[in-house]
Amino acid sequence: MTENQTWVPEFTLQGFQLSPRMQILLCCLFSLFYTLTLLGNGVILGLIWLDSKLHTPMYFFLSHLAIVDISYASNNVPKMLANLLDKKKTIYFVPCIMQTFLYMAFAHTECLILVMMSYDRFVAICHPLQYSVIMSWKVCTSMAVVSWTCGSLLALVHVVLILRLPFCGPHQINHFFCEILSVLKLACADTTLNQVVIFAASVFILVGPLCLVLISYTRILVAILRIQSGEGRRKAFSTCSSHLCVVGLFFGSAIVMYMAPKSQHPETQQKILSLFYSLFNPMLNPLIYSLRNAEVKGAVKRVLWKQRSR
């Protein structure tokens, strides 16, 4: 660093470069999506809590997925909505780094939770007689703890590597929140190590888990095709297809964002893909599970019937 470089105490989030009218429209639209995210995932958590028939390993992991989605959206969206209405659009350094840490922690944790859910479906369909032994509550709790711990530790590694860098200007982040790639562009030092760690983490947390999910579902598909009962086959397809939709949305957007070659407009690409993470995926996950899952529909009917019976 040269002597005339100074520490930047705050950043400016450029967000979406649109007219004031369009920003107000987007604020209303994104507020609706955020409300649906909180409501949808809250309903999933409530159903799992209230309906004893959903006290199974599959819905145990689904409840963790709902918690991650609520936390993920709440980390990014409120600041984005405030910036759409605020002309200043600033964020202090420490909250910015905290936002980066939580963003990475929740993203990593969701990857691992989705892998745990695919393993649960693999055991349920391919080894049904051993399911209660393999997927005991002790094992499920350990898997959830490992997912949250690994996700947080990986995020901590990224943050520690960011904190070693000097940020001396410019202070404008071309994003609507402190996304890690956008923050690194403001560092006035070599970020090669950060980029290598991000790519290595992407291979570890995206490609590896995705391969495990695909292997699990290949074996699941073979097992489903062997099921003689048409009703049993439909039930298995319904449950697994819901999970595959969620996996496709999450891993697809993540791989394009962090591993695919950059487009001619990388900042615009990052913002659009980040919207999938922050808004669309968390909002769609409960819709996918509720609309395509007979057990969730049944739980809604049972809970509503209990409320009417009181």
Instruction: Tell the overall outline.
Output: globular
Number of strands: 3
Report mean pLDDT, rounded to a whole number. Answer: 83
Largest sheet: 3 strands, mixed
Number of helices: 10
Low-confidence stretches: 1-6
Structural class based on helices, strands and sheet pairing: mainly alpha
The helical percent reads over 70%
Helix and strand run: EHHEHHHEHHHHH
* Oligomeric organization of the protein chains: single chain
CA distance, first residue to last residue: 70 Å
Account of the 3D structure:
The protein has 310 residues and is mainly α. The protein has ten helices and three strands; from the N terminus they run E-H-H-E-H-H-H-E-H-H-H-H-H. The chain has helices at residues 20-50, 57-85, 93-126, 131-134, 137-163, 180-184, 192-226, 230-258, 266-291, 294-309; strands spanning 10-13, 90-92, 172-173. The protein has a three-stranded mixed sheet. Helix 3 (93-126) runs antiparallel to helix 8 and helix 7 runs antiparallel to helix 8. It is globular. The relative contact order is 0.15. Residues 1-6 have low confidence and may be disordered.
